[in-house]
Specification:
This protein is of the alpha/beta class. The chain folds into two domains: about 30 residues, no CATH class; about 200 residues, no CATH class. Helices cover about 40% and strands about 15% of the residues. It has twelve helices and eight strands. The strands form two sheets. The chain has a six-stranded parallel sheet, with helices on both faces. The radius of gyration is 19 Å and the shape is globular. It binds zinc ion. The site of zinc ion has 7 residues, from loops.
């Protein structure tokens, strides 16, 4: 039997990586790392994102040691989620009008987290919604249990500094789920430090370059490489 280059390519594109289950030529394993995140993460993924191979949740969930993904749209009656909510001190990352803005200079929710109530004894959990803005809005509006959660959002300076070049996103709040999650975790856990810049430089430098996200920085760096890798398929 004689193989042509095209046959070879088709053959290779059908072999799946045993770890990430993607075709070998599109394997994402090199872009993952191992991070032992103290605040657990729960990703609520819209069904339309599941088959989205450019989605960043695969990278996120393979890199964080405490990360779970649930798929759905209306989570109001979702038994597994409701059990999780009953046993964790959950924060929803969602840029709602009443959301508390996580602070860049200190642990944004320190005062809330250290209050002496029963809930503060439970493990911390950060919930993120994975979908387009329209889909995330729909998930939030349909899910009364999510609306009841304490909501947090990123400061504007971080929220508008995404590196996500693959998919069309609005200019404002253009972060991928992965970036938003890393920034939020870094702020909640006091991992995010501003690099030593004077006040003017702070205002003028892109925040991606002027902050260090501590234990989450490696994943953000890998993500930048992942973006370049994805873009290489476009030519
Ligand atoms: Zn792989």
């Amino acid at each position: 039997m004689k193989f042509t280059l095209i046959d070879d390519f088709l053959f290779m594109s059908r072999i799946l990586c045993k770890q990430c289950q993607r075709p070998i030529i599109a394997c994402i394993c090199n872009f993952t790392c191992r991070i032992d995140n103290p605040t657990a993460v729960l990703v609520l993924q819209h069904p339309s994102e599941v088959k989205q191979t450019k989605g960043t949740v695969a990278l996120l969930s393979r890199s964080l040691s405490h990360c779970q993904v649930l798929v759905g749209e209306n989570f109001s009656q979702h038994d597994e989620l409701n059990t999780i909510l009953a046993n964790n001190q959950a924060l929803l990352l969602y840029p709602n009008a009443q959301a508390q803005v996580l602070s860049l200079t200190n642990n944004g929710l320190n005062s809330t987290h250290t209050s002496h109530n029963k809930q503060s004894q439970q493990p911390k959990l950060l919930i993120i919604l994975d979908g387009t803005w329209k889909k995330a809005y729909r998930m939030f509006m349909l899910s009364s249990n999510l609306q009841a959660l304490e909501q947090v959002c990123l400061p504007d300076t971080l929220a508008n500094k995404g590196q996500y070049l693959i998919r069309k996103v609005a200019k404002k709040n253009a972060l991928s789920s992965l970036e938003a999650c890393c920034f939020a975790l870094a702020l909640l856990e006091n991992e995010l430090v501003e690099k030593k810049l004077n006040e003017t430089e702070c205002r003028e430098t892109a925040l991606n370059q002027s902050v260090d996200c501590g234990i989450y920085q490696e994943l953000l760096t890998k993500f930048a490489q992942f973006n370049q890798f994805q873009l290489s398929f476009r030519t």
